[in-house]
Amino acid sequence: MSTKRKEPSPNMPHKDFTLPPGNGTRVCVGGGAGFIGSHIARRLKAAGYHVTVVDWKKNEFMEEKEFCDVFLHEDLRKLEVAARACKGCQQVYNLAADMGGMGFIVSNESVLSFNNTAISMNMLEAARRAGARDFFYASSACVYNEAKQEDVSNPGLVEADAWPARPQDMYGLEKLYSEEMALAYGRDFEMNVRLARFHNIYGPRGTWRGGREKVPAAFCRKAITSTEEFEMWGDGLQTRSFTYIDDCVEGVLRLMFSDCDVPINLGSTEMVDMIAFAKIAMSFEKKELKIKHIDGPMGVRGRNSNSKLILEKLEWEPTITIAEGLKKTYFWIKDEIEKVRKEGSEAVDFSTSEIVKQVDDSLMQLGEAEEKTEAK
């Protein structure tokens, strides 16, 4: 199929937006060393905000000075860590989550449920204790009812389609629960809660190998390194919309400085099936590889964003096309592959994807840390 895009209404031009100057205002970005979090933190720091980032992993593609003033390399599953990170902050952005592509999510539902529920609870409570004025929670299109996503010609999921609740997996259910928990905090305490449901965010400086990468990065990597066949999980007819990182950052900041207090979609409405998506990735260097369909997790059959509510509330929607955003991602990943190979990893096969098996290392690390504390 060809890509399909719903254009913004001619009666609804995009509203101008300038991020208010920070002037040293303290903000906390949970998960700020991750892909989306680091891009948001970098924009805030550039605008003069004093940015504290807390994450259990370091960013491998950015220097800390690029995106934060203070970096806490700690575990947000511990309330005391979240409380320390949020202290004195007017705004709290929670982007922290244990996640990955479908291959990782389907193999680690229990671990993701434990880790992400703990992180979400702690960040909310820490923001409340700190007296934060604004709280942002990064939700996901995975919250939507699976029954609404069985048609590859999905007309676009509206926000009400999350109920009655029936996400495809525990990752989506945890996101939906965390949305409701955040809304409850907003009702019970003086804190402005903002919720965005991300639709497949992608772009440079994100994970592109190892099993946690998502489709855009995996397809770029395969298009770059494959020589005869392009490997693809499933029949390739499943459809998705994809949102470039710059649009995501813009949307989050517009939302945070708005009066929108309900969950909204933050996603492009340009929908494409996986075969067409692969061909776009191959087109950047004029490759024409045969697609090899293999068994693997595919997710729902059809998922697309709907921009009616975001246009109503923010007078804006994502505008960067797949062709534009994926091209930037493609050549960034190509540079990364060349760096890896120069370091002596010529034998690494980047033309295939792996399904990450169930791992409990993060759970065990939390337990080990608590045992050491008790032993002191």
Strand content: 5-15%
Mean pLDDT: 92
Q: In terms of per-residue confidence, which ranges show pLDDT below 50 for 5 or more consecutive residues? A: 5-10
Assign an overall shape.
globular
Instruction: Kindly name the structural category.
Output: alpha/beta
Q: Can you list the strand order of the major beta sheet? A: 3-2-1-4-5-6-11
Tally of contiguous helical segments:
12
Helix content: 25-40%
Q: Describe it for me?
A:
With 376 residues, this protein is α/β, with parallel strands linked by helices. The chain contains 12 helices and 13 strands. The strands form 4 sheets. Strands 3-2-1-4-5-6-11 form a 7-stranded parallel beta sheet, sandwiched between helices. Helix 1 packs across helix 8 and helix 7 crosses helix 9. About 2% of the residues have low confidence.
In short:
Helices cover 39% and strands 15% of the residues. It has 376 residues and is α/β, with parallel strands linked by helices.
List the helices and strands and how they pair.
Blueprint: E1 26-30, H1 35-46, E2 50-55, H2 64-67, E3 70-73, H3 79-86, E4 91-94, H4 102-105, H5 109-130, E5 134-140, H6 170-188, E6 192-198, E7 201-202, H7 215-225, E8 229-233, E9 239-241, E10 243-244, H8 245-256, E11 264-266, E12 271-273, H9 274-283, E13 290-294, H10 308-314, H11 322-342, H12 361-375
Parallel strand pairs: 1-2, 1-4, 2-3, 4-5, 5-6, 6-11, 7-10, 8-13
Antiparallel strand pairs: 9-12
